[in-house]
């Protein structure tokens, strides 16, 4: 189905540069290596890796076709990466609000990507991804509005908790306007510039967004 997408069709697998058999074998080998490696480092990290791998398999074979759940599962993947990092480096003073912020930001970027795909592929969106046929722009705009507000509120609450431990009273609150600008700028790029299909590329290529993040 990636062959229906103007950019994804250039990837090794849909373009025919990589055979499905070789891709499957390589994925299995890398999964075993990563699971064994993380388990040796920390048994809890190994368990998180196992959950992460199971989540990816479930997403690839079924959950990516379920509306709304598809993006929620992707955001879970980002959360699991953060949890694994906290476990491996033995962080003892990690605010639960950061887990909330990471999850909500992943939802924000994920639904933004779905909106871009629908705008880009139009009538052919459902042929690329089954769940896209169940979305529409008004629905995604409402969801993104809800998630955008949630991100800003969650981050603001995090600064109240973190400011004393990290930077002293009031200092962490100074970062809230930067988060607001990031969200507003990203929405501008999605709605006005019709971008958002590749959040990582957008962050690097859009200078105002990059400078604000740095």
SSE layout and pairing:
Blueprint: H1 20-41, H2 43-61, H3 69-88, H4 96-121, H5 125-128, H6 137-166, H7 176-191, H8 199-205, H9 207-213
Helix pairs in contact: 1-2, 2-3, 3-4, 4-6, 6-7, 7-9, 8-9
Question: What are the key terms here?
Answer:
mainly alpha; 9 helices; 214 residues
Question: How does this model look, in words?
Answer:
There is one protein chain. This protein is mainly α and 214 residues long. It has one domain. Helix content is 71%, strand content 0%. The radius of gyration is 19 Å and the shape is globular. The protein starts with 19 loop residues before the first helix and ends with a helix. The mean pLDDT is 86.
Low-confidence stretches: none
Span of the ends, CA to CA: 36 Å
The whole-number mean of residue pLDDT values reads: 86
| Major β-sheet annotation | none
Strand-residue proportion:
under 5%
The overall number of domains is 1
Order of helices and strands: HHHHHHHHH
What's the total count of β strands? Answer: 0
Q: Bin the helical content.
A: over 70%
Number of helices: 9
Q: Measured on Cα atoms, how large is the radius of gyration?
A: 19 Å
Overall outline? globular
Alpha-beta content class: mainly alpha
